[in-house]
Specification:
Shape: rod-shaped
Helix content: under 10%
Number of helices: 0
Radius of gyration: 46 Å
Distance between the termini: 129 Å
Number of strands: 31
Strand content: over 45%
Length: 282
């Protein structure tokens, strides 16, 4: 409400009565003239609109530098003077307060976070032969496209992609495999004896034969006792003990197609025997 003690007035060149309230936004010139032709001129502005801020919005998170502008007034950022058009680069939580000449205020709080979420429990490119769980904080995640909660056990065998994103849009992606199945070996079986060459294959991993590197598909021909150890990327191990023995048992006391007129004590150096179809002891 505007009042004056004497005379008559115009407001923006229109007659104006003392005690009238001016509500509309705008720039005004009030001229009051008394009977002696003394004049008082008052210019003023009614501005009810808060300053407009661009570059950041209230409550938002960003993972990039922010150039902030405002259309009027003066500003502080975290309590320090701030100039329109300045770029904010440092990570942190910010409060921007912009105040215009009419004391209208715009307050914007925002966060700059350029750091990807930290994930523990699994690492990118790893293989596991146990149940695992991934943990993280202040972020959300999907596992193979399905929502995943921090700390949930992952037990099933398979190939997984974990994508963890925080409020600022920073992303950590971890690809890993759970494999609890030992390698499959063909060509030999555990604790078996063979009298022929053996071609040995396995479906995954790396192998040693008696401590030396061994390639799948290789043929073992030499007589001997062998230990084959096959280990896959997840640390699952298959161990096969086998023997190649191409030498027939040695028999003493009798020879083939021979006739004797005395009792014969017969011995053999290995294996089991029958004599005319019945079990026979060396």
């Amino acid at each position: 409400m505007i009042s004056f003690n004497e005379g008559s007035a115009t407001l923006n060149a229109l007659p104006f009565t003392s005690g009238t309230t001016v509500t509309a936004k705008g720039f005004y010139t009030l001229i009051v003239t008394d009977m002696a032709d003394n004049t008082t001129t008052v210019t003023f502005t009614i501005d009810k609109t808060a300053p407009e801020v661009t570059g950041v919005t209230d409550g938002s998170y960003y993972n990039t530098d922010r150039t902030i502008t405002f259309n009027e007034g003066s500003a502080t950022l975290n309590g320090s003077p701030f100039t329109s058009g300045t770029t904010v680069t440092a990570e942190g939580f910010y409060t921007l307060i912009v105040t215009d000449l009419a004391n209208n205020t715009t307050t914007v709080t925002f966060t700059i976070d350029k750091t990807a979420p930290e994930v523990t429990g699994v690492t990118d490119g790893s293989y596991y032969n146990i149940t695992v769980s991934a943990t993280f904080s202040d972020a959300s995640a999907t596992l193979n496209g399905v929502e995943y909660l921090s700390g949930t056990p992952i037990a099933n065998e398979g190939t997984y992609q974990l994508i963890v994103s925080n409020l600022a849009g920073n992303i950590t992606t971890i690809n890993f495999v759970i494999d609890k199945t030992a390698p499959v070996v063909t060509g030999v079986t555990n604790n078996t004896y063979y009298n022929t060459n053996r071609t040995i294959t396995f479906n995954e991993g790396n192998a040693t034969l008696n401590g030396s590197p061994f390639t799948s598909g290789t043929t073992v021909s030499a007589e001997g006792s062998y230990i084959l150890v096959v280990t896959d990327q997840a640390g699952n191990v298959t161990t096969i003990n086998f023997v190649i023995d191409k030498t027939a048992p040695v028999v003493t006391g009798v020879t083939n197609n021979t006739h004797y007129n005395t009792n014969r004590t017969i011995t053999f150096n290995e294996g089991n025997a029958t004599l005319n179809g019945s079990p026979f002891t060396s």
